[in-house]
Amino acid sequence: MKLAYLVTHPIQYQAPLLRRVASEPDIELHALFMSDFSVRKYFDPGFGKEIKWDVPLTEGYDHEFLPRTTENEKNIADIRNNGLEKILVRERFDAIWSHGYAHRTSMRALFIAKRRGIRTLIRAESQPFGVVREGLKGSLKDKVVPLVLKLGDAFLTVGSLNRQYYLSHGVPEEKMFSVPYAIENGRFHDQALAAAAGRDELRAELGLAPDRPVILYASKLTGRKRIMDLFEAFRKLSDRQPKPYLVIVGDGEDRNQLEEAITNSGLRDDVKTVGFQNQTVLPRYFDLCDVFVLPSAREQWGLVVNEVMCANRAVVVSNEVGCGPDLIQDGVNGRIFPVGDVNALAEALWDVVKDPQRCRAMGDKSWEIISKWDFEADVAGIRAALRLPART
Fold it and tell me: In this prediction, what percent of the chain has a pLDDT beyond 70?
């Protein structure tokens, strides 16, 4: 089976899955990237700075970069590609797996594949509470999405909410196959275990006393991530015992506002901001914390939650974090709170950190859950979708 994988650019979360699929002896995977900006140093508007990933993005599988006519690295939607049909004809693919369907190149690929009888697989992060578009853009989206979805022969669902989204747009059950939004669990688990040896050193670097719990946030510092909600919730815990620390990993447009709020609150010794940390460094922070929190609004999934669960850590997320229904069992391996409710967030965090033994048990449950949410399930789902005949 010759399978094309189409995506905007090499993605640090997707590369390990591509290597895993490419290792199947009877699947010949060939990745088609619309841009190469992520394999070099580039400006990330979310982080608000230039970054370069420190993990391999294109090793272990066949790939090529589509010819580009224009490119704007600050807006992926502006990337223009040509020569797509020529490549699809040249390679004689049996199927094309598109990661997303909103980009003009993705839509063109699906139209071309449908016209030429190539099986089409769609995998996207869409959730019922996705990005809100009003006015003309919202009207166009309402009309275009159902038409594009009709081009899919099979839909690779990343989780429960993603499945609900497709159902709400008329995609029949028989066209959906579970391909969980997973990461390289074993690698992250091993890295977290290895990081434990340096935990005391990291605590000392950050000036953290050894007998206080650590709450960790690791994501972009943007409005939708609601980092200020987390800070306000943390302030409500500042007079409780055991008094926790808050460690914030990440960068972005809200960092100055956050730093000013920390200074004005008098909590500079209790809140540590360490900026952007690359992929190979993050496991040190996952190992450091007692509980991880992602308070975002309209978070399509939140793969950082998968990562920290591999470190046997409890997790607190808002009810608009897409992975919540699948990965977080409220009161078992973490807590789920209503997005934007600062008081509820504070109580959820306290419920987890106030009892160290229960917190550790929650973390162990996280590993038990995430260890079954893996690439093997992905490969099985992809295989099942490839067996579904294409419709002309």
Answer: 94
Mean pLDDT of the 152-167 span? 96
Instruction: Please say if the pLDDT value at position 298 is more than 50.
Output: yes
Domain at 185-370, CATH from 3.40.50.2000, 3.40.50.720, 3.40.640.10, 3.20.20.10: 3.40.50.2000
Say if residues 96 and 367 touch (Cβ distance below 8 Å): no
Is this model's pTM higher than 0.85 or not?
yes
**Rounded Cα gap, residues 385 and 330, in angstroms:** 32
Q: Is the separation of the CB atoms in 168 and 145 below 8 Å?
A: no
Q: How many CA atoms lie within 13 A of 163 on its CB side?
A: 16
